[in-house]
Design goal:
This protein is α/β, with parallel strands linked by helices. The protein is built from 10 helices and 11 strands. Helix content is 41%, strand content 16%. The chain has a 6-stranded parallel sheet. Strands 3-2-4 form a 3-stranded parallel sheet, with helices on both faces. Strand 9 and strand 10 form a beta hairpin. Bound molecules: NADPH dihydro-nicotinamide-adenine-dinucleotide phosphate (NDP).
Length: 298
């Protein structure tokens, strides 16, 4: 059997169209367009390209978006001062700091400095905590996008055994907490580099999420027949046939796994586009929430 492809590009386009319509309603109601500020430090090519993609998508959705490009040698203090400025600006709804930051800047210090109500990436500890205790807050875009994909593909999560490989703060842990949430109701297992019998555990998954960062880590023998396989990985592998000398592959051996799985996401064109779509959704939510808070305070 060949798995059904989960087309992340098409699903992301639908989410983006919904956000666009939401922004139109928002501005027609007399509000300024949601405003997103993306902070890019230095000239890391991959980061610069992610930021360009985010800004382009935001503009297409009607979001007022701007990159604040800072030199690689900016001091931590100056960066924190800028964050403070954005936190207090009445015209900024969402702030995203593109990671990783240069070595002399402590990523976590910067994340802690963000106003949790403008933290559209959902990385601030307050938002991480809200997710764990089931309160409304911003959820990291990649795992939120995966839940959206599963829902829009009609894949049942309630009672399903979801196995997440990877325990990072931006993918693995929030993914596990989202699966666990009331309303999603999966039974969750999280695996990492010290997990024993990983292949055996993966084979029990009705939904298998691979967020490892190792090309072709998930092989066909780790997939339960009919399972939904979600590949988060983005890995560069050398490819002399490509002009740029490499191609992007996921963490799953796609060709082999698709013969066993029921559903599968490709790389590229799977989880990646969803991440950006959810960022736009979070930015619109940020504008709405800020308005509600301001209305309550007034
Ligand atoms: P991290 O490196 O932060 O985390 C990787 C996780 O994989 C860790 O928990 C690690 O375990 C685990 N791991 C590593 N090796 C093994 C192993 N041999 N067996 C079991 N587990 C292992 O990565 P991220 O979560 O940030 O990203 C994961 C992948 O997803 C990357 O390829 C990244 O590029 C991609 N990504 C894609 C996004 C998208 O939009 N599509 C967004 C974000 C990330 P341990 O904790 O024990 O070290």
């Amino acid at each position: 059997m060949s798995a059904q492809l989960i087309d992340g590009k098409a699903i992301a386009a639908a989410v983006r169209a919904d956000v666009r319509a939401g922004v139109e309603d928002w501005t027609q109601a007399g509000h300024a367009p949601p405003a997103l500020r993306v902070v890019l430090v230095g000239d890391h090519p991959a980061s610069a390209s992610y930021v360009r993609a985010k800004i382009r998508a935001a503009s297409e959705a009607g979001v007022d978006s701007e990159t604040i490009h800072l030199p690689a040698d900016i001091s931590e203090l100056d960066l924190l001062a800028l964050i403070d400025e954005l936190n207090t600006s009445p015209t900024v709804d969402g702030i995203l700091v593109q990671l990783p930051l240069p070595d002399h800047i402590d990523d976590s210090k910067v994340i802690h400095a963000l106003d949790p109500d403008k933290d559209v990436d959902g990385f601030h500890p307050e938002n991480a905590g809200r997710l764990v205790i089931g309160e409304a807050g911003f959820v990291p875009c990649t795992p939120a996008g995966i839940i959206e994909m599963l829902e829009r593909s009609g894949i049942e999560t309630s009672g399903a055994h979801a196995v997440v490989i990877g325990r990072s703060n931006i993918v693995g842990k929030p993914m596990a907490n989202l699966f666990l949430k009331r309303g999603t109701d999966a039974t969750v297992t999280v695996c990492h580099s010290r997990t024993k019998n990983l292949a055996e555990i993966a084979r029990q998954a009705d939904i298998l999420v691979a967020a490892i960062g190792r090309p072709h880590f998930v092989t066909a023998d780790m997939v339960k027949p009919g399972a939904a396989v979600i590949d988060v990985g983005i890995n560069r592998v050398e490819d002399a046939s490509r002009e740029r000398g490499y191609r992007l592959v996921g963490d799953v051996d796609f060709e082999a796994a698709k013969e066993i799985a029921g559903w599968i996401t490709p790389v590229p064109g799977g989880v990646g586009p969803m991440t950006i779509a959810m960022l736009l959704k979070n930015t619109l939510d940020a504008a709405r929430r800020r308005h509600e808070h301001t209305a309550v305070e007034a």
